[in-house]
Amino acid sequence: MSRRIVLPLLLLSLAVLTSCSDGDSVLGVAQVDQPLPSLSGETVDSEHLDAAAYADGNVLVINVWANWCDPCRREQPMLVDLADRYHDDGVRFLGINYQDDRDAARGWIREFEVPYPSLFDP
Q1: Which residues does 23 contact at the CB level (< 8 Å), separation at least 6?
Q2: Distance CA 63, CA 72 (A)
């Protein structure tokens, strides 16, 4: 195809794809000064955890992870470091384990010495 056809097609495709968004998505956006939506469940260690009670008015960083996820493996040491570093400054971390079996999730927590709880979402 010639450049005269490819460039307009690319621009048209970009316009169509970007117009599909309604602009109301909150994924990846910090919800500042908003109450935490109800989030509770069983942890990897079979304990009940309510996220709002756990946060207790502190900033809460939530990370969804799985032991089969390569990006999760790369980011976990940084999250452990941040959780340790900012705990005294009122920042709490909470993991949500996704689609693992409980033993694999527990192994991950031991391997990375994760200092914060993780909800279990098989």
Answers
A1: none
A2: 9
Mean pLDDT of 23-52: 80
Q: Of 122, 116, 80, which is closest to residue 101 (Cα–Cα)?
A: 122
Parse the chain into domains and list their residue ranges. 40-122
Q: Quick one: CATH architecture of 40-122?
A: 3-Layer(aba) Sandwich (3.40)
Strand partners, 87: none
Percent of the chain with pLDDT over 90: 67
68 vs 17, more confident: 68
The two tokens of residue 9 are: 């097609």
**DSSP reduced 3-state for 108:** helix
